[in-house]
Amino acid sequence: MAPEYALHGIFSAKSDVYSYGVLVLEIIAGRRNNFAQYPGTNGEDLLTTVWRHWNRGSVSGLLDGCSADGLQPTEMLRCIHVGLLCVQEDAHLRPGMAAVVVMLNSRSITLPVPTPPAYVVSGRAGALGMSTTREAQAPAGAVRGPYVNDASVSDLEPR
């Protein structure tokens, strides 16, 4: 779930881009985006693990043994790069899906450097690594929710 939706109820096409990026990274790493103990992850969520490997230049440590069969390392690296672009904290920096398709199909396009991904802890109010003091700006066409009904009054009376 995109962090801007989970924390502020803002939904846009960039929320779907975020979900796509998580899915790509889950497939490449061969694990889900949760805090389960996977070997070599120290209990980190998937996005933290991928970002750590990306910064160290050790993304080969991410690859699931099965998923790397038959694929070139440059293709896997490009998929990880695009996945990281899709899960950037700032929704405005995430590419649109049309751009994602072009990035994955064209080797001649230079990809921008990704910024750190957003980290949302499910089941807890708040986020790790996300600025909660900054009020999220709604992208064009965004839907805000949930809504609070201030018009109705419900008085509960015991039996």
Brief overview, please?
The chain is mostly helical.
Based on Cα principal axes, name the global outline.
elongated
Helix content: 25-40%
Rg of Cα set: 19 Å
What's the helix-strand series? Answer: HEHHHHEEE
Distance between the termini: 42 Å
Number of helices: 5
Give the percentage of residues in beta strands.
Answer: 5-15%
Mean pLDDT: 75
Topology:
Blueprint: H1 3-8, E1 10-11, H2 13-29, H3 46-56, H4 73-86, H5 97-105, E2 119-120, E3 127-128, E4 143-144
Antiparallel strand pairs: 1-4, 2-3
Helix pairs in contact: 2-4
What does this structure look like?
With about 160 residues, the protein is mainly alpha-helical. The chain has one domain (about 5-145): Transferase(Phosphotransferase), domain 1. Helices cover about 35% and strands about 5% of the residues. The protein contains five helices and four strands; from the N terminus they run H-E-H-H-H-H-E-E-E. The strands form two sheets. It has a two-stranded antiparallel ribbon. A two-stranded antiparallel sheet has the order 2-3. Helix 2 (about 15-30) packs antiparallel against helix 4. The N and C termini lie far apart (about 40 Å).
